[in-house]
Amino acid sequence: MTSLRERKKADTRTRLSVAAVELLISHGVDGATVAAIAERAGVSTRTFHNYFARREDAFLYFVRERVARWAKQVQNAPSDMSALRILHGILKEAYTRPEDDIVALGNLAVLGERIGFVLGPERRPDIEDILGPLYESVRQRVENGTEFRARLTVDLSMAASGAALRKHATRQREGDSSLADLLDEAFEVLAHGVGS
């Protein structure tokens, strides 16, 4: 059982990471300063540094927590549900969130791009490591559960979601496919192949 102090520390860490991500999404890399993050979270910059050495650490903490939740969803799903179907559900749920929700699908895409930019090439392997829990959860569900198949399932799911987002962003007229429909179509292709 966690103590009140531990819960308060966990809450502060979460508030800081959420504030960091909100600023990164809404104000870009330059607007997500340590001072701005601390102010948004209602703490001092000193308190920020008690939890994170750099702002990038707060961004990564948020992403790790989100990936850990997805991994748990994969683990806790009914045993007869395929990993691809579970991932489709997770990403579709992110789509249904309001646009101003930081875990809405479009915001997660922006977040991933901006974190990749902030980290630069020398720290990008950290991003791959973050997906480790999700890869492992999926590996346990994939037929012939090899690490490669698990990574392929996760990576193709993310790519399918990205393709749906990009297509949705270029809608030309009313009546074009909704993001939900595009996401369903993308996962249909993943499940049954491009030739289907």
Question: Can you describe what's shown?
Answer:
With 196 residues, the protein is an all-alpha fold. The chain has one domain. The chain has ten helices and no strands. Helix 1 packs across helix 2 (34-41) and helix 9 runs antiparallel to helix 10 (179-192). The termini are far apart.
- Helix fraction bin: over 70%
Number of self-contained structural domains: 1
Mean pLDDT: 89
Q: Which residues sit in consecutive blocks of at least 5 with pLDDT less than 50?
A: none
Q: What shape does the CA trace take?
A: globular
- What share of the residues does DSSP label as strand, in percent? under 5%
Cα radius of gyration in angstroms:
18 Å
Class computed from helices, strands and strand pairing = mainly alpha
CA distance, first residue to last residue: 51 Å
Total count of strands: 0
Pfam family, one: TetR_N
InterPro entries: Homeodomain-like_sf, HTH-type_TetR-like_transc_reg, HTH_TetR
Keywords: DNA-binding, Transcription, Transcription regulation
Protein name: TetR/AcrR family transcriptional regulator
